[in-house]
Amino acid sequence: MTHTGIQAILTDIEGTTSSIRFVHDVLFPYATAHIPAYVRAHHARLADIFADVRALSGREDLDVEGVIEVLLTWIGEDKKATPLKALQGQVWEEGYKTGAFQGHIYEDAALALKAWHDQGMKLYVYSSGSVPAQKLLYGYSLKGDLTPLFSGYFDTTTGPKLEGTSYTAIAEALALAPEAILFLSDHEGEIAAAKAAGMQTQWVWRDQAHANAVQSFAQIEVKS
């Protein structure tokens, strides 16, 4: 599918550039297994995360073990909680750096991102995972260090991915008209929110062919 008048591309990660299975079968289990020991060992410098967990859970009396319990519950629920995402990023950093795993990137996504970058297109990421976690996935990916391709990153600190105001805020941060930005995602709700904000959008649905979606980045043509 062809998109014209594009000055920047904003992409989701999970299910779009990276396999959902990698996130759910590798990253989440690793975080579940390692967060308890990590929190116990580093709780003295996690005061801000602890405060956010207590505020979001409505339980101001949580001690270290209580915070751990809430965090593990949120992982099981796949809750898009900013303090959880921040902590997961710290734990995953250890995993990436020790070689426990590498970030999965679809071959077609890696090739397209490199081609668009070479065209002079500005590339950005918007994911529910924290910005540090995003940089780790792309920096320690199976396709090598892809972070030089990106000009910036956005996470839930910008706003929820299902709200149009979040995409308006991103457009303002990039100093671009929304219609000059192409947003890529596997999630129809995110596509709808970005479209409501005026962005051009492309639904990426890898599981099966669909009239309104592409199964590969190779099917996306971008023109400035």
Give the end-to-end Cα distance, rounded to a whole number of Å: 14 Å
The name of the CATH architecture of the largest domain is 3-Layer(aba) Sandwich
**Element string (H = helix, E = strand):** EEHHHHHEHEHEHEEE
Q: What profile does the largest beta sheet have?
A: 6 strands, parallel
pLDDT < 50 stretches:
none
Instruction: Count every helix, treating DSSP H or I runs of 4 or more residues as helices.
Output: 8
Number of strands: 8
Strand content: 5-15%
Backbone structural class: alpha/beta
Q: What level of helicity do the residues show?
A: 40-55%
Radius of gyration: 18 Å
Which descriptor suits the 3D outline? globular
Structural write-up:
Helices cover 47% and strands 12% of the residues. By secondary structure, it is α/β, with parallel strands linked by helices. It has 2 domains: 2-18 and 103-222, HAD superfamily/HAD-like (Rossmann fold, 3-Layer(aba) Sandwich); 23-97, Orthogonal Bundle (Transcription Termination Factor Rho, Rna-binding Domain, Chain A, Domain 1), CATH 1.10.720. A 6-stranded parallel beta sheet has the order 4-3-2-5-6-7, sandwiched between helices. A two-stranded parallel ribbon has the order 1-8. The model has no long low-confidence stretch (mean pLDDT 95).
